[in-house]
Design brief:
This protein is mainly α and 561 residues long. It has 24 helices and nine strands. Helix content is 52%, strand content 4%. Strand 5 and strand 6 form a beta hairpin.
Length: 561
């Protein structure tokens, strides 16, 4: 039984994608902020709290005010019968507990719907709403004892309130008259006005403000990247129309721009952002290859050490690596060549064998042809299981060499100067691809064998990299392997290898629920008229949120692009 202690990012590579690359591509929209209308709902709750001057301004008072409102909102989203609800993606906050109440006829506002004191607001949306200029977080020298909405947040909350306060339950909540119980018909009435799915129908309420917010507000340095990514999603949604878009085929379209269902050719004004998403997915293949080698090393080491009871000489690990290289049937199984690939094969020769069958000649802005047996995604699919065979070692080196030939040669790097920030992300402590490929290029030119190349990769970017990350987590012990002189000590703990979340669910849900495109999960996706305007014109007119602010005397503390 493996100990799962310490999470999954044991080489520290996942944080490069999640904390650096993705925030640069989609600032303000992260893995957990899936539904745009939560911004409206939370702004309404905050504004309502501060509108009641009789309430004590304390964390306990706000929590008592907040929780029954989100509990009822979660219940409303569970019972909602609007036709638009069929396309809701991602969990509604509290759904793990609340979904069991779906068929009830009476609902308790005090139901303990989630453990977190401030529910989804505290867990997911609070910091992003602050960053977009909707609120100030209480404490920390802010001058507010509890969170408070800026006028931008008040304007958004008022727009949501105009939708729900016409319902009996919405009016009660706004008046701070929490009923002891809520009949199903009243909850349904609220849901039909205020559910997450109804945002697309809220043209006279909060929809235009949220569209303006996501396209134009927040840090002015970040707004153009968010706008470009949202347009990229709309552009990509019109390709491969015979199948719905999910995480896996999104990755393939972003990277290769081709799947069995069709080809994606970015608009001329979106080539730059499309290329940056391609670099992101390259980083995912790169990280997977190193993490998968890490898993192979750890599990082989545990086999050799009787589940970690004895030390393993490092030379024995190199014997296992050479044995894998010499016995692998990789070339035959991937239908690459009649040639043999062994530990003595040079890295340059192996790269040539790969690229005789996987065309890496098209540049960074072109469509890349697929090889369903041997390209990066095919090798990822092949080695996702934890079967640690000889072919796994060769396949992961193959992924690295394919990435090098596509993006890492000096000629290719010079073509991608605008993306060096992403290519170098991670630097030396988190294995930046640019620096890695520079070192790899020298080794390929020097004629290094696959045996020596594998030792270099495993020593520096698997074992030492893991030791660096695990040491930084001390006193928590997350070591899977560590060097002791010329030997290795292994620990009975999991060493998984998976892609990081690409934010596709959050991004695709955002463009859908903001009313730009039909559900991305469906085939034959269609842009709405406003979605077509955004894609073709490059933006939508700004000003809806600014106009709504006119109703509030205090000037906004938020920033606008």
């Amino acid at each position: 039984m493996y100990d799962t202690k310490g999470g999954q990012d044991h080489l520290g590579l996942g944080s490069v994608s999640s904390d650096r690359i993705l925030p640069a591509l989609s600032p303000g929209i992260n893995v957990l902020t899936i539904h745009p209308r939560y911004w409206s709902f939370y702004a309404w709750v905050l504004s309502s709290f501060w509108a009641h001057e009789e309430l004590k301004r304390s964390k306990a008072a706000f929590q008592a005010f907040y929780r029954p409102r989100e509990a009822l909102f979660s219940m409303a989203c569970q019972v909602c019968d609007a036709p638009e609800h069929a396309t809701i993606s991602g969990n509604v906050v509290g759904s793990l507990r609340v979904r069991r109440l779906r068929e009830d006829q009476v609902f308790d506002p005090q139901y303990n719907y989630i453990k977190e004191p401030l529910g989804g607001y505290g867990l997911y949306y609070r910091s992003t709403m602050e960053a977009m200029g909707l609120l100030v977080i209480g404490g920390r020298g802010s001058g507010f004892p509890v969170d408070a909405p800026w006028p931008t947040g008040r304007a958004l909350g008022a727009a949501y309130g105009s939708a729900v306060e016409t319902t009996r339950l919405g009016a009660q909540l706004a008046a701070d008259q929490i009923p002891d119980s809520v009949p199903r018909d009243e909850l349904l009435e609220f849901a039909r006005a205020g559910c997450l799915c109804r945002l697309r129908m809220a043209d006279d309420h909060d929809l235009p403000l949220l569209q303006d917010l996501f396209l134009h507000w927040g840090n002015p340095a970040e707004t153009p990247a968010r706008l470009a990514t949202l347009r990229f999603l709309l552009d990509l949604s019109q390709s491969a129309q015979s199948e719905g878009l999910e995480r896996d085929n999104f990755r393939q379209l972003a990277y290769f721009r081709r799947t069995d269902a069709g080809t994606y050719r970015p608009r001329a004004d979106l080539k730059a952002v499309a290329r940056r998403w391609r670099v992101y997915q390259a980083r995912e293949y790169f990280s997977f290859a190193l993490n998968r080698l890490f898993g192979w090393v750890v599990r082989k080491g545990l086999e050799e050490s009787d589940d970690g009871l004895s030390l393993v000489p490092i030379d024995r690990l190199w014997e296992l690596v050479d044995e894998a290289l010499d016995t692998s049937e990789f070339v035959r199984e991937t239908k690459l060549s009649r040639s043999t690939v062994r530990s003595s094969t040079t890295a340059a020769r192996f790269a040539d064998i790969l690229t005789e069958h996987v065309d890496v000649s098209p540049g960074p802005n072109a469509v890349w042809m697929r090889n369903m047996d041997a390209d990066e995604h095919a090798l990822y699919d092949w080695c996702r299981s934890r079967v640690d065979d000889s072919e796994t070692v060769v396949a992961m080196i193959a992924i690295i060499l394919l990435l090098y030939r596509r993006l890492g040669t000096p000629a290719r790097v010079s073509e991608m100067e605008a993306d060096w920030d992403l290519l170098s992300s991670g630097d030396s402590l988190r294995v930046g691809m640019l620096q890695f490929f520079q070192q790899l290029h020298r080794k390929v030119l020097a004629g290094e064998t696959l045996s020596l190349l594998a030792r270099w990769i495993i020593t520096n970017f698997v074992i030492i990299q893991h030791e660096r990350v695990a040491t930084a987590k001390l006193p928590e012990d997350t070591f899977r392997v560590r060097r002791i002189g010329t030997q290795l000590q292994f620990f009975m703990r999991e060493a998984p290898a998976e892609f990081n979340d690409s934010r596709f669910v959050a991004l695709s849900t955002t463009v859908h629920e903001l009313g730009f495109v039909s559900s991305m999960r469906e085939s034959s996706r269609k842009l709405t008229p406003v979605g077509r305007e955004l894609l073709r014109q490059g933006d939508l007119p700004a000003g809806a949120l600014e106009e709504a602010l006119a109703a509030f005397e205090i000037q906004s503390g938020g920033e606008r692009a």
